[in-house]
Amino acid sequence: MGQNGSGKSSIVKILTGIYRPEQTTKLLAGGEELHLPVSSAHLAAGRIGVVHQDIGIAPSLSIVDNVLARHYPTSALWHIEKRTGRDMAHRILGRLGLNVDVTKLASTLTEAEKSILAFARALYDIERSGGTGPGVLILDEVTARLGPSDSETVVSTIQRLRDDGWGILFVGHRLDEVVKLCDVVTVIRDGQVAGKLLAPQVTTDSLVSLAMGELPDLGSTPPPAAGDKEKRATFAVRVDAGPLRDTRFSGYDGEVLGITGLAGSGVDTLPYALVGHIPLRAGELRVGDEQFRLDDMTPSKALRHGIGLIPGDRLINGVAGVLTVQENLAITELTNIRGRQLLSRVNLRKLDAVTKEQIRKYRITPTDPSRKVANLSGGNQQKILVARILEQNPQMLIAHEPTAGVDVGARAEIFHLIRESARNGCATIVCSQDVDEVWDASDRVLVLSHGRVVADLDTAVDDQSLCMRAILSSGSESNAPQ
Asked: What is the CATH number of the domain that holds 27?
């Protein structure tokens, strides 16, 4: 366990050969020594299987094809033996408690069943490599994006494997799952082992203390606050989409509202639900005196009404790497111009002057407007995206992971721009799984769990460890939707 960025996933990637260790590192498996980095074939030969958070299931393929995709059984003449393959897949899935028609598409499975399918694929790879008996499974946050019911199904499957003699390396955040599954809990902080606890010793306080390095006496996590009645609410949200189940909250004049939580909590769904990028069952958004039905919202409508989104993946949904700095900064205006109207409706000299002023204002380097954005650093690409949104003077700004993959200097500048926008009257939300980022950027932080607000914290008054405590407790049954 550990905070985001502590090094948990990096350890898994080192163990599985994705990252090359800087120093000589050894891995002992079943009494045998494996020198890192190792290939997937060597891992399987050492009876080690891996299931990543992104489980890699192909929904358009059949269940049997997903299990056997790497090594389909063949005859001596290299003919694919489909019947043998179906029998093998059915047998392995049956061991995991999943009895389904393996010829059906993987898209017909529930999210929990897809995770079990990934387990079956790992077991098959180990079985095919030879040898008998249980091995080791490395599970990297396999329940992170699952709801309570699906998580419970997957945890039961892991318990079945453990009881059958398999060794489990379980990377997770949810306290109840860790206590239920693990005998020993290792906490990582800043890439180092901060401490080890036996399962009976594990409490939220002990984990927060090890993960953060200190733990003041703070009492229990407070319930969601009703809000300061003396402040003027500038926006209110009610949304029902994906993991968000009738989620409600408000934001106040001049504040940056941060929202955080684990993967699957709704923190990554919310920004796109508010601007119509994902379908909604129902929802409402009030900004100032305007009221919007979110099940009728579209991205273009959001833009017309001054609701701006800074998306989490700038290279896919934000900037256009093949275009220049100037073209990216002016793209909102230029997309409204067609064909021959371009030269007649745009004063290119004025456009040059405006672009140079924006480069200066947002401290974009290098300062050449003709430079391709793909050749800029991540921090400068992000500043171009932020500049393009803020120059439209939005009445609401929604930022998803706004400083992901940027250096510390650009991070401080982007936070400054976001805070300044909020102080100037823009309703502002920052959504991120990075607790440090949200806490540094925000005046108030909400913690989501299974689509519900489970903590409402004032960053000027409350301690950040309360936020971490709420997140680590968020997998408990008391916080799950009824």
From this structure: 3.40.50.300
Give the domain range for residue 332: 233-479
Distances (CA, A) of 288 to 185, 235, 291: 48, 6, 8
**The pair of three-digit structure tokens given for residue 289, joined into one six-digit string:** 């005196």
Cβ–Cβ under 8 Å, residues 215 and 205: yes
Number of H helices, E strands in the chain: 19, 17
pLDDT, tens digit (0-9, with 9 covering 90-100), for 26-81: 777 666 777 777 777 777 777 888 888 778 899 999 999 999 987 777 777 777 78
Residue 245 shares a structural domain with residue 195: no
Distance CA 466, CA 137 (A): 33
Q: Is residue 98 part of a domain?
A: yes
* DSSP 8-state class, residue 444: E
Q: How far apart are CA 260 and CA 273, in angstroms?
A: 16
Q: Is residue 221 part of a domain?
A: no
Tell me, yes or no, whether 29 and 145 share the same domain. yes
Asked if residue 262 and residue 321 are part of one domain, the reply reads yes
CB 425 within 8 A of CB 265: no
Per-residue pLDDT reduced to its tens digit, 72-92: 777 777 777 888 889 999 999
283 and 428 together in one domain = yes
* Rounded Cα gap, residues 176 and 188, in angstroms: 18
- % of the chain at pLDDT higher than 90: 31
Alpha carbon distance 370, 375 (integer Å): 11
Domain match, 160 and 247 both: no
State the DSSP code for 70: T
Q: 442 and 378 in one domain?
A: yes
pLDDT band at 225 (very low <50, low <70, confident <90, very high): very low
Name, in order, each residue with C-beta under 8 angstroms of 22's C-beta and a sequence gap of 6 or more. Answer: none
Alpha carbon 478 to its chain centroid, in Å, reads 23
DSSP-assigned letters across all residues of 135-173: -EEEEESTTTT--HHHHHHHHHHHHHHHHTT-EEEEE--
pLDDT in tens, 100-125: 999 999 999 988 899 999 999 988 88
Crossing angle for the helix pair 111-128 and 148-163, nearest 10 degrees? 20
Alpha carbons 122 and 133: distance in angstroms, whole number: 14
Residue found by looking up tokens 């380097």 in the block = 365
- What is the 8-class DSSP label of residue 106? G
